[in-house]
Give the backbone structure.
Amino acid sequence: MNYPIYLDYSATTPVDPRVAAKMIPYLTEHFGNPASRSHAYGWKTEEAVEEARGHVAALLGADPREIVWTSGATEGNNLAIKGAAQFYKTKGRHLITQKTEHKATLDTMRELERQGFECTYLDVEENGLVDLEKFKAAIRPDTILASIMMVNNEIGVIQPIAEIGEICRAKGIILHCDAVQAVGKVGIDLSTLKVDLMTMTAHKMYGPKGIGALYVRRKPRVRIEAQIHGGGHERGFRSGTLATHQIVGMGEAARIAKAEMAADNERIRMLRDRLWRELSGMEAVVLNGDLEQRIAGNLNVSFNYVEGESLIMAIKDIAVSSGSACTSASLEPSYVLRALGRSDELAHSSIRMTLGKFTTVEEVDFAANLLRTKVAKLRELSPLWDMYKDGVDLSTVQWAAH
Amino acid sequence: MAYSDKVIDHYENPRNVGSFEKGDESVGTGMVGAPACGDVMKLQIKVGRDGTIEDARFKTYGCGSAIASSSLITEWVKGKTLDEAMGIKNTEIAAELALPPVKIHCSILAEDAIKAAVADYKQKHAAAAPEKQAANG
């Protein structure tokens, strides 16, 4: 096994070797600018770009003409949300999103608020899912756009996008969906799903970093204002010379995902369930986010009475994400876990383990063993664990805050 | 975060982990910090008849620096009188462990833990002392 064991597939994935092999000739041999119409170098790469576009569209049940290449998810979310808000602002100025969205959505909303838009940030339920009645209740006559992610990056829960799509379509509201953590992991069919704009990125699905795509619906037609101006590439939605090798990589990743996703998911779910069986047998362990409405590879767990940073330090043989950003003097617990109603302590002591198609049984067993041993060791050190074992309710203790 | 070798040593091999009986007359207990802030330290000192600290124990919920700071002070207070222990400064702890600026609060908490443990011991004996005088008189 290679240490540290990689259990952070939601942060990024390795590039599938088949993807890398497909990309390389487009760096050295087929280097033409796809926008060059006057010679074979350009024709060759334009053909490759369109083939890749076809693979991405096929994975989503979309028309290739609905796929716009971007540099990745942050750009995709910015283009979709700002682009639609600015195009439709004469119809209204109200936007809806939820508190557990990625920063690329939340911060874009904040910027639009500075430009005079109003945004409602919906609370989520304790399981991390948005309540449809609360979503409906947030809609106003001047609501033009809603942005709800399909899969949450921290807790992996799958939002009821189909239902939200029906609600939005009936009210004439544009629905943007950040599907970065969903594409290649859950089945998406945009021929039936009523999503108008959808963001995706290659490096979460075994493709390269630096390339993504935005789906822009044609029927019924959705309009957005471009955010990057120039040579009018991508039908004017996104100017800039196309990164052929990256695009070829994303296309190949999409092709492989379509063919292998079902089998990969089954294996990954088996491994995730095996890991959770081990961890859930421990005392004072909490799963964050709904277990059923969840992608196969995600496990987000809080180990109560253990501090997050010391936990991360203790388990340096596995590469995981922490729910606590304890790199500054002020501790910042994950805002996603806080939105679920978790206490600061539980949010601090959480770790996110995300499994992928290269994860093995041995790796999962090693991780489970390491966590059991190290959590037990840190609890031996923890005065809070003592108090818990003595039956003290920690919420009633008067702490000397510092 | 890059920790010094000393922090890592104390974190991986913490000294004097454990607890004394809280009700023991010779024991002073200090608990400082709060779970929401990410650190809780419990320091206990065992004081001999001559007024020197014979032994110490700690338990800490916190980051590596907090664990190392509390482990270190259990070593430092041993053999010191209460007044000498009260003289231990957070800057000395931070310097010994080469704590980065964002972790200075861990050394401050350790200093507070010593003060709290000594105060607890003194409080126990302040209550006991007048009785002794009365018995002698």
